[in-house]
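ARCHIVE CARD
CATEGORY: sequence design from structure
SOURCE FIELD: tokenized fold
FIELD CONTENT:
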């Protein structure tokens, strides 16, 4: 006899909702494009890591590591998505072959990528060594607490909303603490940036808030209802957040350190920027 599962035991709402062909295919597509983009840009970051001055090369290299880690995790989400649904009649039904889908793997992946993304910021802003370590640690501690309390809370999304909301609030408190720490690093970034790049840290700050802020929205979304739309929109939100907070963020930081290398007199970086609008600002700042 097949026991009817208790919805609360199903973890994620993906295991409760049947999807139309359009919704199922859109979900596959979103996950596929996400892992594809991360793997492709791993190559980009490895290759461009030769352009900035040696002291900044670790910034694109760390982005390549983040791309590999996130790409593998998203590939796993994709294969799990494929395995967890079965086309029956006219709909894709969950729990195919007893396989459950989960978003919890994402949280495991963030445990690796988030500390790297935060440390990358402090390295790009060229914080001096002892301060770099202290500030990175002060960001990583609240970030990990935010992720792990959220991981526990998200197991409640399929029915136990007091678990979802209680741990969501606890996690948000750690997020606020993290935001304060990041703000401190951004302020140091403004102070330490060369004149033509002074606007970058504050722009990165707003970009950070806008992109990291998408994750709690995705977390809370199941409360809008257990529907195919919510399932697909949430995967979309996660993907937009992933591509912007890791990939595009990596592009921004890599560009920042490239410009900074040129300003600090590293000739190959200045040559690499030659045809770009930044080049004239850099040349002007050096009195060329
Ligand atoms: C959770 C739980 C609900 C409350 C808050 C959350 C914040 C998550 C964030 C995640 C960022 C992840 C990144 C991953 C990159 O690889 C945990 C969803 C505030 C901000 C940047």
């Amino acid at each position: 006899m097949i026991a009817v599962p208790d919805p609360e035991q199903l973890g994620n709402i993906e295991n409760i909702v049947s999807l139309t062909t359009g919704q199922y295919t859109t979900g596959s597509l979103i996950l596929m494009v996400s892992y594809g983009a991360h793997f492709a840009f791993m190559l980009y970051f490895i290759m461009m890591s030769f352009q900035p001055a040696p002291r900044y090369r670790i910034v694109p290299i760390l982005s390549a590591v983040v791309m590999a880690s996130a790409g593998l995790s998203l590939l796993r989400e994709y294969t799990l998505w494929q395995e967890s649904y079965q086309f029956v009649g006219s709909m894709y039904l969950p729990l195919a072959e007893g396989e459950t889908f989960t978003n919890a793997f994402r949280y495991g992946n963030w445990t690796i990528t988030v500390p790297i993304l935060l440390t990358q910021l402090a390295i790009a802003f060229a914080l001096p060594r002892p301060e770099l370590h202290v500030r990175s640690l002060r960001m990583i501690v609240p970030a990990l607490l935010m992720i792990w309390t959220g991981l526990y809370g998200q197991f409640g999304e399929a029915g136990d909303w007091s678990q979802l909301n209680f741990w969501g609030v606890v996690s948000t408190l750690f997020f606020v603490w993290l935001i304060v720490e990041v703000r401190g690093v951004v302020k140091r970034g403004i102070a330490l940036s060369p004149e033509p790049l002074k606007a970058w840290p504050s722009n990165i700050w707003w970009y950070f808030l806008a992109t990291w802020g998408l994750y709690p929205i995705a977390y809370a979304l199941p409360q809008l209802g257990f529907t195919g739309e919510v399932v697909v929109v949430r995967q979309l939100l996660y993907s937009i957040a992933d591509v912007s907070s890791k990939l595009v963020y990596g592009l921004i930081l890599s560009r920042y350190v490239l410009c900074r290398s040129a300003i600090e007199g590293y000739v190959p970086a200045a040559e690499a920027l030659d045809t770009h609008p930044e080049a004239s600002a850099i040349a002007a700042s050096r009195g060329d």
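CARD ANNOTATION: The CA atoms of residues 195 and 285 lie 8 Å apart. The mean pLDDT is 93.
SHELF: design records, drawer C
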